[in-house]
Design brief:
Structural class of chain A: alpha/beta
Strand order of the largest sheet of chain A: 3-2-1-4-13-14-15
Oligomer: homodimer
CATH topology of the largest domain in chain A: TIM Barrel
Shape of chain A: globular
Largest interface: A-B, 103 and 103 residues
Number of strands of chain A: 16
Radius of gyration of chain A: 23 Å
Largest sheet of chain A: 7 strands, mixed
CATH superfamily of the largest domain in chain A: Metal-dependent hydrolases
Distance between the termini of chain A: 48 Å
CATH architecture of the largest domain in chain A: Alpha-Beta Barrel
Chain lengths: 452, 452
């Protein structure tokens, strides 16, 4: 009798101390493992059971780690990565007119975008991001960087109503974008979105075309919307209505829409978003850094809007770090609502995973660790000085951990990043083993006092 | 002729690509080195000159690194470190009454505080913090942990007007505190502060005693002040004045005072702080997380108040990470002032170094890299995927870097932490060397567009 004959062969078995599938909500599995085959999660079982059913080509035993769904960066412009830190601490118009635009005029081309996107992918992957939603010129180059890195990418087919080095008019942008979509239509990793830049750079006729394409091709629409009060005021002057009302009139408000930023919002704007079931991408660091303000996320969540998280580009953030965005979103919401219980850690993790997947209309395949979904998986080492003791691993992820604690990243079932020989530093006076021992001692004593 | 005979022997020469002394303001030295002897900075010279004058027992050649003054955490409670993550996302009173206070009732004693403080020191040191300003029960135990870790510490001699496991009344707190001060008075690293907990836990008579001791012994006063609106309202009910006005009447407002939090402030409160030249400790993460609000830092800086940064305890933050506080302070100030130029990176770095030193009345010996000052030095690796390209190292420190990029930490001339074999992760599709090369290429082209 050969026991192995009864077992299914799989590519990976990944074992960890904790597993947060995100769906079902707020579930935390202990001492579980994931089996991955052909890019798909085929089983999630207790460690001590999984080997009875599966035989793995590769096995990862990750003591002290938690497995979470690969994080999703719902708004970025990876092609801008070479501009990181070029012009910080300058006012918005000076930033654009004296730094960002002149650089774009001088350098933006296939190679600039490909190189920037590759740097961006390297930063995202090592922070546990497996999927990003991008918008920039020469989207083909960003798709190529994603493919080289092994990342899942939603490539925005950017459209504006003025000429750039990439395209000379709206029809040219659209034609180039749709050609790119066609070229990648058989890719497992690359998907397209229609990406009208913003209400102030795109005219009515172009928006109407985009709505038609979105319906015909079943694509999400990726749009900057109500980023600043100035944008709202200029729209009132030029169109007599606020940008979101103009979008409603043009048929853009829809569950296909990912409205990015949404900082300058009043109650009527929120009503419109709610009644049209618009998705929001919250970019708290970028909104603070460019002095745009703080989006009314608490009000959006109360209305059950679907809200994901984005970093924006490394020219305006300057960390492509969804961990910082999770933490900042949770912290700002607490101050905004004057309630320390607002936007709890679990909800921040959902925003960075399943909510972002839903915004991309991809929640049937990514955004959670469930059998049958694509294997986009992030492993995080919680046995770190910075996240000891550990009473609640999800709290640690959002409030204590940093991206440097990510150790393994799988995209579509392939290991695309790992941190080998994760070594702590050496202290002259402190013995890390002693720290571990004393933490274990106190953690056992204090655990009964933990919040549920 | 023996060239070495003309040279001064020193303990360390540390060479780096950049050096930010912080004093003089906004100076950035390139390709410089520091010579350290007997705990003191004896020279700061160009790399290619320093070896003509000094011969070092140990030499650190830190390519791609920047040297900055050791960071100062101006407000923490290291003894609480074992409570990290025990009760997040719960309202303030529930947090205190159901979790923090019961744990303190059950466990707070010498050993609990020593172990927590040691964990805290380990976290602080690896993030480049060389000095912390603490307030907690059993301060003796915190001092012991600092000594073991080799850290500089300002130990708060905590005082309250109600009994705890540490002391039974105000006189007992004071007597215990002053005995601790006496015990450590010859230490190079340990200093004392008088630490009345808060206006709502300390009575008038006790404050008067503390003011007398502060003058006689020339000690700073470390006090939570105006953390919440509730604190202000309760004071109005009980004393008929706001806490800060009561502190003025009691003689507490003074350049000796470090007022922590200062969130619930009106114009008159700010006037009082300004006219009495009070120091402020800003703890942005803690204030957001406990839903206290956002301190009016921009208004304080406009009044030329001296403002440092603190993490607060890992029970309320939960990162003992001054890097996050620098970034959060800068970002919040921009949104608060609706000006992207507000609280620039340089100012954030000053808050975490020389301003904090000034608050502790220690700016003649620490807080900057200057000849004659104590050698509290932090080395940061900027050659990291997360901080490429690098047009402005100070911008990178505040907006892009994380504490994981700290590689060497000297306190009082001793190497107390180093990260050996700092290895980047391994990507399946990305070659880190290629990333470095393409970044160098673009950085050279874009540099002329950099903001000054």
């Amino acid at each position: 009798m050969n026991a192995i004959a009864d077992k299914q062969f799989v590519d990976y078995i990944i074992e960890a101390d904790w597993l947060a599938p995100v769906v079902p909500q707020r579930q935390l599995l202990e001492q579980h493992a994931i089996a991955v085959q052909d890019g798909v999660i085929v089983a999630i079982q207790p460690k001590n059971e999984i080997h009875r059913h599966f035989h793995a080509a590769q096995q990862l035993e990750l003591d002290g780690h938690i497995l979470i769904p690969g994080l999703i960066n719902l708004h970025t412009h990876l092609g801008m990565s070479m501009m990181r830190g070029l012009a910080d601490d300058v006012a918005l118009m000076q930033w654009l007119q004296q730094h960002i635009w002149p650089v774009e005029q001088s350098f933006v081309a296939e190679r600039f975008v490909r190189d920037g996107a590759l740097l961006g992918c390297a930063e995202l992957l090592q922070s546990g991001v497996t999927c990003f939603n991008d918008m920039y010129f020469f989207p083909q180059a960003t798709a190529e960087a994603a493919i080289q890195s092994g990342m899942r990418a939603y490539i925005g087919l950017v459209v504006m109503d003025f000429p750039t080095k990439y395209a000379h008019d709206a029809d040219d942008y659209l034609a180039k974008g749709l050609a790119i979509r066609d070229e990648w239509r058989d890719s497992d990793l690359i998907r397209a979105t229609l990406a009208p830049h913003a209400p102030y750079t795109v005219g009515d006729k172009t928006f109407e075309q985009i709505v038609t394409y979105a319906e015909q091709l079943d694509l999400p629409i990726h749009l900057h919307l109500h980023e600043t009060q100035q944008e709202v005021e200029e729209s009132l002057t030029k169109f007599g209505v606020r940008p979101i009302e103009r979008m409603r009139q043009l048929g853009v408000l829809d569950p296909r829409l990912i409205a990015v930023h949404s900082v300058a919002m009043n109650e009527q704007d929120l009503d419109l978003m709610q009644s049209h079931r618009v998705n929001v991408c919250h970019c708290p660091s970028s909104n603070l850094k460019l002095a745009s303000g703080i989006a009314p996320i608490s009000a959006m969540l109360k209305r059950d809007l679907n809200v994901g998280l984005g970093t924006d580009s490394s020219a305006s953030n300057n960390r492509l770090d969804i961990w910082t965005e999770m933490r900042t979103a949770a912290l700002l919401a607490k101050a905004q609502q004057q309630d320390a219980a607002a936007l709890p850690a679990w909800q921040a993790l959902e925003m960075a995973t399943i909510h972002a997947a839903r915004a991309l209309n991809a929640d049937s395949s990514i955004g959670s660790l469930e059998v049958g979904k694509r294997a986009d998986i992030c492993a995080v080492n919680l046995q770190h000085i910075n996240s000891m003791p550990c009473y609640d691993p999800i709290s640690q992820l959002v409030y204590a951990c940093g991206r440097e604690q990510v150790t393994h990243v799988l995209v579509d079932g392939e290991l695309q990043y790992q941190k080998l020989s994760f070594q702590p530093g050496v202290y002259a006076g402190i013995e890390p083993t002693e720290i571990k021992e004393i933490v274990q001692l106190w953690q056992a004593k204090l655990k009964p006092f933990k919040a549920m």
